[in-house]
Amino acid sequence: MAEKYVYRFEEGSKDDRARLGGKGANLAEMTRVGLPVPPGFTVTATACNAYNRLGREFPAGLEDDVWKEVAALEERAGKRFGDPQNPLLVSVRSGAAVSMPGMMDTVLNLGLNPKTREGLGARAGRRFALDCHRRFIQMFGNVVLHMEHSAFEEILYAAREQAGVKHDHQLGEQELEEIIARYLQIVERHTGRAFPEDPKEQLTLAVRAVFDSWENPRAKVYRRINQIPDDLGTAVNVQAMVFGNLSPQSGTGVLFTRNPNTGEHVLYGEYLTQAQGEDVVAGIRTPKEIAVLKDDIPAAYAQVEKVAQLLEDHYQDMQDIEFTIEDGRLYMLQTRSGKRSARAAVKIAVDLVGEGRISKQEALRRVTPEQVDQLLHRGVDPAAQNEVLAKGLPASPGAASGRIVFDADMAERLGRMGEKVVLVRPETAPDDIHGIVLAQGVLTSRGGMTCHAAIVARGMGKPCIVGCEALKIDLGRKELQVGGRNLREDDTISIDGATGRVFLGEVAMVEPELGGEAAEILRWADETRRLGVMANADTPEDAQKAREFGAQGVGLCRTEHMFMQQDRLPVVQEMILAATEAERRDALGRLLPFQESDFYGILRAMEGLPVTIRLLDPPLHEFLPDVEELSVEVALLKERGGQGGEDYRRKADLLRQARALSEFNPMLGFRGCRLGLIYPEIYEMQARAIFQAAARLQREGVEVHPEVMIPLVGDPKELEISRRLVAAVHQEVQGETGARIPLKVGTMLEVPRACLLAGEIAPHADFFSFGTNDLTQTTFGYSRDDAEGKFLTRYLEEKVLEENPFAVLDQAGVGQLVTFGVARGRAVKPELKVGICGEHGGEPKSIAFCHRTGLNYVSCSPYRVPIARLAAARAALED
Amino acid sequence: MAEKYVYRFEEGSKDDRARLGGKGANLAEMTRVGLPVPPGFTVTATACNAYNRLGREFPAGLEDDVWKEVAALEERAGKRFGDPQNPLLVSVRSGAAVSMPGMMDTVLNLGLNPKTREGLGARAGRRFALDCHRRFIQMFGNVVLHMEHSAFEEILYAAREQAGVKHDHQLGEQELEEIIARYLQIVERHTGRAFPEDPKEQLTLAVRAVFDSWENPRAKVYRRINQIPDDLGTAVNVQAMVFGNLSPQSGTGVLFTRNPNTGEHVLYGEYLTQAQGEDVVAGIRTPKEIAVLKDDIPAAYAQVEKVAQLLEDHYQDMQDIEFTIEDGRLYMLQTRSGKRSARAAVKIAVDLVGEGRISKQEALRRVTPEQVDQLLHRGVDPAAQNEVLAKGLPASPGAASGRIVFDADMAERLGRMGEKVVLVRPETAPDDIHGIVLAQGVLTSRGGMTCHAAIVARGMGKPCIVGCEALKIDLGRKELQVGGRNLREDDTISIDGATGRVFLGEVAMVEPELGGEAAEILRWADETRRLGVMANADTPEDAQKAREFGAQGVGLCRTEHMFMQQDRLPVVQEMILAATEAERRDALGRLLPFQESDFYGILRAMEGLPVTIRLLDPPLHEFLPDVEELSVEVALLKERGGQGGEDYRRKADLLRQARALSEFNPMLGFRGCRLGLIYPEIYEMQARAIFQAAARLQREGVEVHPEVMIPLVGDPKELEISRRLVAAVHQEVQGETGARIPLKVGTMLEVPRACLLAGEIAPHADFFSFGTNDLTQTTFGYSRDDAEGKFLTRYLEEKVLEENPFAVLDQAGVGQLVTFGVARGRAVKPELKVGICGEHGGEPKSIAFCHRTGLNYVSCSPYRVPIARLAAARAALED
User: Fold this and answer.
1) How far apart are CA B543 and CA B861, in angstroms?
2) Is B452 labeled as catalytic in the residue annotation?
3) E strand intervals along B124-250
């Protein structure tokens, strides 16, 4: 049997989107439930595909089916296509399954020619008929014959000038006739043939134009970027015209069934009387608010209200509607689920639950984690008109304005004085943290989504843009070249961390809000999710914030950030440069009180909840000055004859030691538990600090749950030895203090070998935590500090990779290792607690993977905790 | 039933090593086959374990069994333990399953006391009896009572002085009586009690002493280092004495049934007449060559010859024998497989096959790959007495002497002049290659077994020591401090790459030989192995050498080494620093002829065999000067006011570009196919060079099989795109030249993700080659350039890891990924060719793994090809 290419509206429903397109399916659905829809039919997207496959030929049977349906339409309308007495006019509109710009839009009033116009005029008024005819030629010329809109507008403009009127509807019959004549002339000049006057030819050409537009370059690019399959095709909707321009009791409008910005439950939209659809968007006349319709055409307003209610009842969601009123009677031309702001999405979802329309589960499906994220950060006012200087990677959401500073010390100094500054660097390093803390935001020319600046800024909830390669930063001159401009320290810029845009000057902001409805949604999420949500927090302040956002503990507390603080760094450097174990122990002894007070604060902030503390992880040379800089300093001191001096000796000595510690690939070097095994005194000090802090809090009546995490384990022996060391200190401290602290020691799985040997590692572990940042680096062989600036961006642009594996967990590769790790670990220890503490712990798709893989919890930066709570719930609902 | 702790020699065989120890098992075996072995019994190693487990108590039943066996021994010998008329004397010797220094050795003549001595004297001569008694007290005092040997020797020395004689056997009865009296005095003084005169107590104490010695510190350390299990235990052999010191027709000796140095089929050993066992090793009298025995005691010599023949027939191997002749009658005290030099091992194995004693397969089992390796390199003469300055990691075998040079340019200059130089550097870099080529060997203070210097030197078959941290190198002053000495350029040192020793001055060498027998063994290996053996070769010379060593093709040709040559580097740098694709294509165009001639040479040398060419792999900044050095240069130029100059501008520019290209973790950076995807023109040039060279050779009638290998693939898309690029060039060149070249494109699996996604990658690959160097780095998260110097050595010392994963493939972790790669690749493409081209391809244990895992071939440096051939055969035999 031949494929059925044409469906009458009565034959479809909202579930037929693939064949009928979104618009066609919803027209069918509205027809099915008895709403006032002008009759019509849909030519399927399948037909479009066949047409394009056949080299722009209609497939066999298609035209016959169309004329059969036109005939049926004539029958029902009591009018005939091309009938000079009582002509049928139709609208032709495209409609793919997915809404897509770049496609052919709409042709109204199709079926008109000088003869049918007169027939229409005889029945409905001549001026009205001329107006329709003028509109038809213009739209058809533009969208079917590909003529510039402006060519028609010029003629119209001249006519208004000549007539001395302001609006088109003030033009008289004669003027319209003249305009039509000139329109027909320019069409003939443009196309080389007379305007097609046969309604059948008009319809055929219009359908072709819709099909062709599926293959136009703009549509193709859009599909590629948005990963829409090319063989989706578009449907064509042919519908009997109703006329919003028929009389003063006529009009046309669009509306949302609720306010799409705030979510408030009121009709929200606008309309024009005596107008056709395109007038509302054309902007020549200012539309009126929908509420005014109540006074203008009260009966129509009542119908609109009723239909809106009916549609919400039917679709159980806020709808975006197009309608036309013909002589006081309402007709529905389109309905679809309305786009809405993050704030509205949350409020509408909660309200719909309150109204008993949807379940809590459905509400959780309706709000995306990205919308919750938006609610948590300041944003750039959409109305801001500032010049966009450049665009980088949106590394940490939120917006900030401030004066440019080029180094962390200056950022700190000005920040302390209450100045708003934006720290601009080629990249940041751990010893810039004091400056980042006091800056409004960070902007770097290098690095990727998981570079140092990005991670630190996200952790602090501070706006950050990285990898903004258009910036040419000259640190020596304290200058910044971008897009032909030269900026200096003190010039003001703004950054939008949500989009990666850098603005000149100060931009207007929109403040964040996580109001009562959001809290409600998150409460429902907590009831629904199975995954725990913990936070990555290095300070008591972070821990406090995380707790406020709903974190159920700290999944990763990085002790090295504590080492970087200005008052400790000199002691840390002494420790590193110690020549003997005794010297090292001495320096460590001086670090102990600092560390103890760090842990005291965090454990206190997380009273009653687990705090997972990772022992020292980064290579030691990260705490020393840069070798290149030192080398230059030493060479210059020597050049200046300073060789005998104390300064030279000290610097030369430091250079030698920094060189000895420097590494070719620090990421794969002497760090993590490798440090702890070679210098056990470091981990001993840290373990002591943890248990002493815990003991102190216990005496003060505070319930504590410290968990010690050993980083970078790749072999069971490493964990076995580290665990023994921690346990020994634990026993000592218990002996000294009389406290009874639960001993929990676990490890991060962050190199492939750890995942492969998880079964051998598990016996020594109370918990596993996947460090998916490093695991991604080692599984791919990508250095995150290098890859994004050097090749990853291109890989993503050219679709070598579908997604940035540092942003979204790579399920195909890294995911296998995670799955091994969980399965093998639990095979020997079924009660093993397993979590994730990489950046992926706050990313919705990755969270869904963690849920499916049976992890116990995810851990992410405090500002992502609400997102993770929602994502975890949505993952549970997908099960 | 109680454990049987005591076995008469007649009850055992050579297969009972675990229970009876090596010595006991062989005594039993010789007894079993009717050789003249003095009767005796063995106390099992199981008894030793029980004893130590019980806290140094004999397990129940042990003593009873011993006395039962002693009684049986008395019965057979017709003598009785402690019988003043006809006393039984025994020897007591330890013997574990594995030969082990540090264990208690031997007590002879046990059973003597003043009374039994007189009985012995009455039957065999009083002086002889006194001599035996003196020996017994001394040995018992030393090894059972833990007294210093020197305490006895002093008394003996004084007695000889007093008597005015030179040798012990010249001492008279009276002197011996006096010595014995003084011996007994010092024993009593030392132990606080009289010497135990009861033979039963003597035996009990001696057995205890053997058991105790299993737990002495030296034995424990030895076991730990050699990975011998602690619960192996040692057996104790108790045997009726025969007396080599009885008469002039008596003697004792050791011999090898063949020459253990050369393998020649002649008896090789030495003996002493009128002596007991310890005299031969004591070195007071010079033993005679075994051949002299023919004249001394012809009948005994005939017996020795016959027994040697019998033992070889029985054990089918060269034997190391201990024997005693008592009054012209031969007794066997020990036999074991004889230790032999590499040269002898090969000759003996081949000869035994020739003699029909063993099969070719057995010969292959008898020769180790390490022995073949020894035959391939010059070695340090074992007699060399030069001062050892330091010890580093033995990175590439062979020995070299030469003058110290501290930079590659100087090495090249002096090398070209015919000077022998050793290049000494903190580490080497790719641009040192021209110097390494002309140096005799390389010595570095940093780096590990797979650092740059190690790999390059092994590839060239040049001696190399790396990670020799005792060296303090001052490149500025061209000085080297080591072990208190100050060496300068031009001082001569020698290095032994097989052991890692650095010598002062020039050492005597032993030249390598891979003679006819070795070639024979390798031919048999080729008949036996299933794995192919290919070579890693970057030059025609390497390829030629590899072919001579038996390589079946080139498994890895690294194109970057070609880029490093002095005449090409400037063009390569131009290519890298090109601002536009056009500039880059221009530089590449000039590189094309160089590359084409490289490939021409290698393909020609490997006529008829496959040549796997890996496209450019390392990060581009490896071809640029060091950023730190440049930075200092630029700072100094500026300081000296050279800012306006051309030189400054050029250098500052270069610095800026080198910085932009520099990476935090180059190993995980912008390299491999990532380069080829972002700059396709580079791979295009290389592919063109390969196919043009192949076409030229085809025209010349040379059969060529180039295979193109894409490095560092982690995603199927990468290989798909690269393959398309290579195929396009292939088609172009075929079109231009008319040649028909088979197109083979494969990839290296060298990041974990590639192994995990092997099933998706295989459809685009004609072959896989595991790059296990990088795969080890990424699986462990170890940078090979950093790990060995920084923590891996300690990890190995402290047994955190059992083996260096860069030397021996880590089967537990990396091996899983290899197994995945093979299985998943072959699941979708059963005919997929799979090999390995990391350093592990030349390491025997790793080769065995490759065999078991079903790989098609291994590829290794030319000098390891023979080793790989043998190892592959042995792996096949293990199946």
Assistant:
1) 10
2) yes
3) 234-240
Q: What is the mean pLDDT of residues A103-119?
A: 91
Q: Give B333-370 as a DSSP string.
A: EEEEEPP--HHHHHHHHHHHHHTTSS-HHHHHHHS-HH
Known active-site residue A837: yes
Of A635, A795, A810, the CB nearest to B635: A635
B429 touches chain A (CB under 8 A): no
Q: What is the DSSP string of B734-776?
A: HHHH-------EEEEE-SHHHHHTHHHHGGG-SEEEE-HHHHH
Token pair of B693 as six digits:
């060279």
- Catalytic residue (one of A133, A452, A705, A730): A452
E strands present in A752-849: 767-770, 833-836
Using pLDDT thresholds of 50, 70 and 90, give the confidence band for residue B138. very high
As a whole number of angstroms, the distance between CA A859 and CA A550 comes to: 12
First to last CA, chain B: 38
Tally the residues of chain A: 879
Displacement of CA A685 from its chain's centroid (Å): 43
Whether the CA torsion A136, A139, A141, A143 is positive or negative: it is: negative
Tell me the per-residue pLDDT of A571-588, one tens digit each, with 9 for 90 and over. Answer: 999 999 888 889 999 999
B262 neighbors B309 (Cβ within 8 angstroms): no
Q: Cβ contact (<8 Å) for A781 and B774? A: yes
Which positions 477-506 of A are in contact with B (Cβ < 8 Å)?
Answer: none
Whole-number CA gyration radius for chain B: 34
Token readout for B189 is: 């003084």
> A781, B631: Cβ pair inside 8 Å?
no
Chain B interface disruption, residue of A673, A677, A753, A824, most B CBs within 10 A:
A753
pLDDT digits (tens, 9 = 90+) for B797-853: 888 999 999 999 999 999 999 999 999 999 999 999 999 998 899 999 999 999 999
| Chain segment A686-731, per-residue pLDDT in tens | 999 999 999 999 999 999 999 999 999 999 999 999 999 999 999 9
Annotated catalytic residue: which of A451, A464, A673, A837? A837
Option in B714, B794, B813 nearest A780 (CB): B714
Nearest by CB to B670, from A632, A750, A786: name it: A786
Task: Please tell me the distance from the alpha carbon of residue A345 to that of residue A438, in angstroms, as a whole number.
Answer: 34
Q: Is the dihedral of CA B349, B352, B354, B357 positive or negative?
A: negative
Question: Is the CB of A674 inside 8 Å of chain B's CB atoms?
Answer: yes
CB A564, CB A430: distance < 8 Å: yes
pLDDT at position A479: 92
Strand-pair category, A421-425 with A399-405: parallel
Confidence (pLDDT) at A121: 94
Residues in A 689-718 with any Cβ partner in B closer than 8 A: 712, 714-715, 717-718
Angle at B576 between CA B574 and CA B578, to 5 degrees: 65
Across residues A402-406, what is the average pLDDT?
95
Which candidate in B48, B132, B377, B452 is catalytic?
Answer: B452
Give A-chain residues touching B751 at CB under 8 angstroms. Answer: 779-781
CB within 8 Å of chain B, chain A residues 738-757: 750-753, 756-757
ipTM associated with this complex: 0.81
Burial code of B390-419, b = ≥16 C-beta within 10 A, e = fewer? bebbbbbbbbbbbbbbbbbebbbebbeeeb
The answer to whether the Cβ–Cβ distance between B667 and A663 falls below 8 Å is no
To the nearest 10°, the Cα dihedral for B94, B96, B101, B103?
Answer: -40
